[in-house]
Specification:
Blueprint lengths: L2 E7 L12 E6 L5 H9 L17 E6 L3 E5 L10 H17 L3 E9 L6 H12 L5 E5 L6 H11 L5 E3 L8 H14 L1
Bound molecules: guanosine-5'-diphosphate.
Length: 187
């Protein structure tokens, strides 16, 4: 698989214009989106991982095999971000989700240890009110023991069936790819 970083931008005019379908990754800061992208493409450092939440307000585009883009949307819910930055974030993401005609699959990532948090529920309501389907990923599942995992997945199921995922073990990679492939075949 050939995966390449294409650009990081917060300006819709700069989004790729070649019309390839896009798979977007949403989630709170630090939820593990970069690690997920790296695991899906089997590279350790395609997407930049960090322990510093809220480091970027840009949208990152990665081209996968010349066939589609993985789109890493800036993480939300970073409490220390200034209000102006939060508003900018909302505007950028809403614009992307609403206007991007090439957008195909939306993955909403949440930390399996935390489940649905307020900002996740806000996003869920926003997506559903605009008829945007999405798939939920329960990330960092390796941090839970069996019993905790059962409880966590049960709680997340209250609103949506989650795909358990671990960047550490690679659990879930196949299922996430299957969901992507299925959508590409339909379109
Ligand atoms: P992002 O801000 O959403 O892109 O999150 P990152 O991918 O940068 O991950 C944030 C932190 O969580 C990093 O320290 C990662 O090493 C860690 N992390 C991400 N995914 C996993 C996972 O599946 N398991 C474990 N144990 N740690 C993870």
């Amino acid at each position: 698989m050939k995966a390449e970083f294409v650009k990081s931008t917060n300006s819709p005019g700069q989004f790729p214009a070649d019309g390839l379908p896009e798979v977007a990754f949403l989630g709170r800061s630090n939820v593990g989106k970069s690690s997920l992208i790296n695991a899906l493409v089997g590279q350790r450092r395609l997407a930049f991982t960090s322990n510093t939440p809220g480091r970027t307000q840009s949208i990152n585009f990665y081209r996968i095999d010349g066939k589609l883009y993985f789109v890493d949307l800036p993480g939300y819910g970073y409490a220390r971000a200034p209000i102006a930055a939060k508003n900018e974030w909302a505007e950028l993401i809403e614009h992307y989700l609403q206007e991007r005609s090439t957008l195909s699959v939306k993955y909403m990532n949440m930390d399996a240890r935390r489940g649905w948090m307020e900002k996740d529920l806000d996003l869920k309501m926003w997506l559903e009110s605009r008829n945007h389907p999405y798939i939920v990923i329960a990330s960092k599942i390796d941090k839970l023991n069996q019993q905790e995992e059962r409880q966590s997945l049960q709680a997340i199921r209250q609103y949506a069936e989650p795909l358990p995922f671990s960047a550490l073990s690679g659990r879930g990679v196949r299922e996430i790819w299957q969901a992507i492939t299925k959508t590409q075949q339909r379109s």
